[in-house]
Write a structure and sequence with these properties.
two-stranded antiparallel sheet, 6 helices, single chain, 4-stranded mixed sheet, 2 domains, alpha+beta, 39% helix
C-alpha cells in the first residue's frame, strides 16, 4: 500500500450547507460518512469549481476542523495568509532580499493593523518599494 503524506490545498473550495429535502443523488457520500448518519445537519456539500457536476459531502466535524468561510471583510482579525506564498515567490528572485525581509516582518500583523499602517504610511516609502519591485529580475 502506498504511504500517506500530508498535502495542503492550493485552491479554494466551493461549498453550501446541506439542507433537509436537498436533492443529492449526484453527490458522492463516503461509506464511512453514511455509517455515521450523513447527510445530516451541519454537513456541507462541496463542488469542484471547474466542474460543478463533481460534488461530494463534507462531514460537519471535518468541515469545522479544517475549513472556514472566506470573507472580504478586511477588518477580520485573521492573519494575512498570502504572505508566506509571496515570500517563497520572491526568494527565487535575485535582488529581492529587501522585499523578502519586509514580507517576513509583515507576517506578524493582522489586516486591521495593516490598515492603520497604510493610513499613516509615508508615500515616499511606498514609492521606494515600487522602485525595488521594478528592478527585481527573475532567475531560473
Amino acid at each position: 500500500m502506498s504511504e500517506f503524506k500530508e498535502y495542503k490545498r492550493k485552491s479554494i473550495i466551493e461549498m453550501c450547507k446541506w439542507e433537509e429535502g436537498m436533492v443529492i443523488d449526484h453527490v458522492s457520500i463516503s461509506e464511512e460518512d453514511q455509517k455515521n448518519g450523513s447527510p445530516k445537519q451541519g454537513d456541507m456539500i462541496a463542488r469542484n469549481p471547474k466542474n460543478h457536476n463533481d460534488q461530494w459531502l463534507v462531514a460537519k466535524q471535518y468541515f469545522e476542523d479544517n475549513l472556514e468561510l472566506i470573507t472580504n471583510d478586511i477588518s477580520s482579525e485573521t492573519p494575512n495568509e498570502p504572505i508566506p506564498s509571496l515570500i517563497e515567490y520572491f526568494k527565487g528572485i535575485e535582488g529581492a532580499e529587501y522585499v523578502v525581509k519586509h514580507l517576513t516582518a509583515a507576517q506578524s500583523f493582522v489586516p486591521s493593523e495593516l490598515i492603520e499602517l497604510e493610513e499613516s504610511a509615508d508615500t515616499t516609502a511606498t514609492e521606494d518599494i515600487d522602485v525595488q519591485y521594478d528592478h527585481v529580475q527573475k532567475t531560473d
